Amino acid sequence: MKTTLQNCIRASRKSRAMKGLRVPKVIASEVLHWASFNFERPIIQFDRALVIFSIDIDVGEKKLGLLNKGKNDSCVHKFYEESRVGEIEEQAIPLFVDLFNSRGIPVTFAVRGQLTEIDNKTFPLLLDSPVKHDIGGHGYTHKQFTDLSRKEAEIELEMLSVGFKKYGITPKSFVFPRNMVSHIDVLEQFGYDCYRDAGTLLNDGMFIKRNGRLYDIHPSIYLNQSVHLSMLKLFLKIAIRKRTILHLWFHPWNFGENVEQVRKNIDNILVPFVDYAKNREESQMLKFETMYSAAKKADANLRVEKIQVPPQ
Ligand SMILES: [Zn+2]
Question: Which residues have C-beta under 5 Å from ligand 1, the single-atom ion?
Answer without folding.
Answer: 56, 58, 177
